[in-house]
């Protein structure tokens, strides 16, 4: 096992990684911006290095600053968490070139999966189902229109280099496609430095289901169950649960097997997630993208399998066998996670501010991974995620009951908070039935779901 670890991230995921590393006896190094000096992860690490101002480009996205911190502290390895530089192949390569251990997949896998069109083509060749769409970038709006004619409207217009639900729009006809194509291409050029656009079939009623994979040190790829991620706003997740209530045993087996093939196709090592769209009408699933990092929602997988995914990441990076027998993996119970964000519960707009009161729920089967606490400040410089509330129960009904109690017992005063939305969701008949899709939040806000 490696001996020292620099965590190139902030907030709750930095605390999460530090917690496991310290349990394993690994010396931990935090890096932080000027805006984050008062957050818990800074004091919980064995050592902390100030790397720049609040602007992420000058701190958490600065490869030079992070590598300098690793050198000055004698770090042996770097864990990127999620977001920031976690899926930056050039940074991963630079870490290795500096003689450090990269806790994640190799740069080649990150590159292969970082472009949605390339990823689609690789997955199709590996026998993983993909939705009808373009195999090359739509270089002009005329190319996009020609592709849409062949695919059939409605279509999804996507930034090929995008991620995290960004750079996506739906077009229902030619006029809409002309408008959305230019918007997405412009956004992609500004945000990702790559204006390549993908045109893909849009499914009006679809579920978003992902599979946790782990590429082991010996070369095997294993699937650690699926996660239902269909409760979203602006194509970004709010609630995740496992197992998915949408799948029957055959569909689940097919989905997990396809995810393993996806990982094997790129020689995947360490933790990653194969994201898919599931059409509940036909029972078919289609590859969406692969996230070459640890996911925000990884705790629900940990809950039902009884493993620590960060520990498994560190073991793979150290060349060690996993703590579990892949052939003996079994799901126990049901787990649900909600993302407690500093945003209003109606329009989901950010509402940062100083936290004057912070009371976390406790009890059997309740876990809170928080990046903040009383007396800390949520700034507008970063994502609005404050904490992840996770519950684990004997079955879905038990987990829902525990979540209802935990949401009611979670108090955050100061910034805006979306906890009232979760209370509303837990009284929603569509969500409670398990028969919901990615349109549920929109229907709730338009009065179409009770």
From TrEMBL:
A molecular function (GO) term: ATP binding
EC number: 6.3.4.14
InterPro entries: ATP-grasp, BC-like_N, Biotin_carboxylase_complex, Biotin_carboxylation_dom, Biotin_COase_C, CPAse_ATP-bd, PreATP-grasp_dom_sf, Rudment_hybrid_motif
Cross-referenced SMART domains: Biotin_carb_C
Top-level lineage group: Bacteria
Coiled coil: none
Alphabetical keyword list: ATP-binding, Biotin, Ligase, Nucleotide-binding
Entry protein name: biotin carboxylase
Organism: Dactylosporangium siamense
Residue span, Biotin carboxylation domain: 1-446
Annotated Gene3D superfamilies: ATP-grasp fold, B domain
Domain ATP-grasp: residue ranges: 120-318
């Amino acid at each position: 096992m490696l001996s020292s670890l620099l965590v190139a991230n902030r907030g709750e995921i930095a605390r999460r990684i530090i917690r496991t590393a310290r349990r394993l006896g690994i010396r931990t190094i935090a890096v932080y911006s000027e805006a984050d000096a008062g957050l818990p992860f800074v004091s919980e690490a064995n050592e902390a290095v100030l790397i720049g101002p609040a602007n992420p480009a000058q701190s958490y996205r600065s490869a030079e600053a992070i590598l300098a911190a690793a050198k000055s502290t004698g770090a042996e390895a770097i864990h990127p968490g999620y977001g920031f530089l976690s899926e930056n192949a050039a940074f991963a390569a630079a870490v290795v070139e500096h003689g450090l251990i990269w806790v994640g997949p190799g740069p080649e896998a990150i590159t292969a999966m970082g472009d949605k069109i390339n990823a689609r083509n690789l997955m199709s060749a590996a026998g993983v189902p993909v939705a009808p769409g373009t195999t090359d970038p739509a270089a002009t709006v005329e190319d996009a229109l020609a592709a849409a004619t062949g695919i059939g409207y409605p279509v999804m217009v996507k930034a090929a280099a995008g991620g995290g639900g960004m750079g996506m729009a739906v077009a229902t006809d030619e006029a809409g496609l002309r408008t959305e194509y230019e918007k997405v291409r412009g956004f992609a050029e500004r945000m990702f430095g790559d204006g390549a656009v993908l045109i893909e079939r849009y499914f009006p009623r679809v579920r978003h289901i992902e599979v946790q994979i782990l590429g082991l040190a010996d070369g095997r790829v294993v699937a650690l169950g699926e996660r239902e991620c269909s409760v979203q706003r602006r194509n970004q997740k709010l609630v995740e649960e496992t197992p998915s209530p949408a799948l029957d045993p055959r569909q689940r087996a097919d989905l997990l097997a396809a995810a393993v093939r996806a990982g094997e196709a790129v020689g995947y090592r360490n933790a990653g997630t194969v994201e898919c769209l599931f059409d509940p009408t036909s029972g078919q699933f289609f590859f969406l993208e692969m996230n070459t990092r640890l996911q925000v929602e990884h705790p629900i997988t940990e809950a039902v399998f009884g493993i620590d995914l960060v520990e498994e990441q560190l073991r793979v990076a150290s060349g060690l066998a996993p703590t579990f027998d892949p052939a003996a993996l079994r799901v126990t119970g049901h787990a649900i996670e909600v993302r407690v964000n500093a945003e209003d519960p109606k329009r989901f707009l950010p509402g940062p501010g100083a936290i004057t009161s912070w009371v976390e729920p406790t009890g059997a089967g309740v876990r809170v991974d928080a990046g903040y606490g009383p007396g800390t400040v949520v700034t507008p410089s970063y994502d609005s995620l404050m904490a992840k509330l996770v519950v684990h129960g004997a079955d879905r009904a038990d987990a829902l009951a525990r979540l209802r109690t935990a949401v009611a017992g979670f108090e955050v005063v100061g910034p805006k908070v979306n906890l009232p939305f979760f209370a509303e969701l837990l009284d929603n008949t569509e969500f409670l039935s398990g028969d919901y899709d990615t349109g549920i939040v929109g229907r709730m806000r338009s009065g179409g779901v009770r």
